[in-house]
Amino acid sequence: MTATSPVSAFTSARLRRFEADAATDPDTALAGLVADLRAAGGPLVERVSPEEVDVTFVHVADAGSVALRTTLLRLPSHEEHAPLRRIEGTDVWHLTVRAASDTAVAYSFLHDPPPVFASPAEALAVYSDERRAGEHLLARETATTADPHNPIRAPRELVIGDEEVFDSVLVLPDSPYVHLAADGPTPALDEHELDGRRISVYQPDGTAPGDALPLVVVLDGEVGIRGGVHRRLDAAIAAGELPPLRAVFWHNRTLTSRMGELSCNPALADALADELIPFLAERYGVPGDASRRVIAGFSLGGLATAHIALTRPDAFGAALPMSGALWYTPAPGDEPSGWLIRQYEREPTRPTAVYLTVGQLEDVPVDYPGVAAGTTWVGSTRQFRDTLRDKGYDLRGYREVPSGHELVNLHLAVVDGLAALLR
C-alpha cells in the first residue's frame, strides 16, 4: 500500500489565534508567536493519538513564496518541496503535516524556490548531467534557509557553492534518533588517492594502522563524510555499541559519475575487490576473513552494495544495503524493474551476511522511466528481503527506519546494521 498525502489543509489553533491577534496588534502578535516557536524548538507539535502528531511548520519571511523541503511530505519523486500558506497581511507562512510520533527527518525552508521538476524523467535527466545538476543544486542551495528556532542542524549532504548549507532536524517525541552535537569531537581521517579517486580512512583513537580491524567500505564517501557518518561510528565505538573498526569512504569522482558507477556496474565491484583491498592491505591491517569485510551504501549506493555482495562475495562477506534503489532496471522499456532481485533469485546463494533497511516514509511510488507503476522503495526492499529468506541467505536483520530517504535515515540504520553484521 502506498501513502496518501499527510498534508492537512487546516490552520492550527495557535495560528488562528495569531491571525486574530494580528488584526489588532500585529507586532505583539508576531512577538508572541516567535516566542512560542523558540520555546518549541521549531515546529509546533501536537499529539493527536498515542502514535501520531500534527506538526505545524512556521516560517517568518518577507518573500514572494516560501516552500518546505522534507521527506515528511511524502512527495512524488520529482517534487522536492511544497508551498507553505501565507497568513494574509503578514509575513507568517505555515503548513501542517500529520506524522508518526517516532519520526525524525531533516527539513528546510526555501525562499522563492526554483520550480519543481515536471516529471520523474526530467529530474533523472537533470541529475544525470553534470552542468544541469550543478546549476539546479546551486539554485536550491541559494534559496535554502534553516529554521532559525530549531537548534538541531545537520550539514546538507551535497554542497555546490562556497557557502555552508544546513538543514534543520525535526526529532519527534518518540523518535530513537540521537543527534550528534555540532561541537562534538570530529575524528581524524587519513586521506589517500587511488587512480585519481579520493579515499578517506577512519580508525578509532588508540588503534594502529597495522591492527587487523574489521573493514567497512562506505560508498558515496563524500556524502558520508559531510553527513558525519564517521562521527556516528566513532561515538558508537566509544559507547561500546560497535567494536573498533576501520571505515573506508569511497568518494565519487564527480557529481554525476555515481549514476553509472553505482548502477550494478561490475567494474565497481572489481575495483573494490581487486584494487582497493590490495591498496589498503599495503597500508593497514585488512582482515583475511571476508566475513569481517563489510560493504555498505545508501540509495543508489545501497543498490551497488547488494550487487557487490552478489558478484564479489570473495571480497565482502557482509553487506549493509540501506534504502537501496532495488527497483532499478538497466534497460527501461525492455527490462522490467527489480533487475537485481531477479539475479538473486537465479544465482546460487552466496555465503554473505546481509542486514537490510529502508525508511518508513519511502512508501511513495518511484515513477522513474521503466519502473512498474506503484513501485516504492519500501515495496522493493520487502521483495528483496523475501528473496533473501527464500534463498537461504544469512539475513542478520531487516528494519524499516522511522525516517525518509535522507541522511537521518542512514544515521538511524548504520550502527544497528554494523553491530549485527560484526557480532
From TrEMBL:
Molecular functions (GO terms): enterochelin esterase activity; iron ion binding
Enterochelin esterase N-terminal domain: residues covered: 55-177
InterPro entries: AB_hydrolase_fold, Enterochelin_esterase_N, Esterase-like, Ig-like_fold, Ig_E-set, Mycobacterial_A85_antigen
UniProt xrefs under SUPFAM superfamilies: alpha/beta-Hydrolases, E set domains
Keywords tagged on the record: Cytoplasm, Hydrolase
GO biological process per UniProt: carbohydrate metabolic process; iron ion transport
Gene3D superfamilies membership: alpha/beta hydrolase, Immunoglobulins
Transmembrane segments: none
Any Pfam family hit: Esterase
Subcellular location: Cytoplasm
Recorded GO CC terms: cytoplasm
PANTHER family the UniProt entry points to: ENTEROCHELIN ESTERASE-RELATED (PTHR48098), IRON(III) ENTEROBACTIN ESTERASE (PTHR48098:SF3)
Similarity remark: Belongs to the Fes family.
Name of the molecule in the record: Enterochelin esterase
Source species: Saccharothrix coeruleofusca
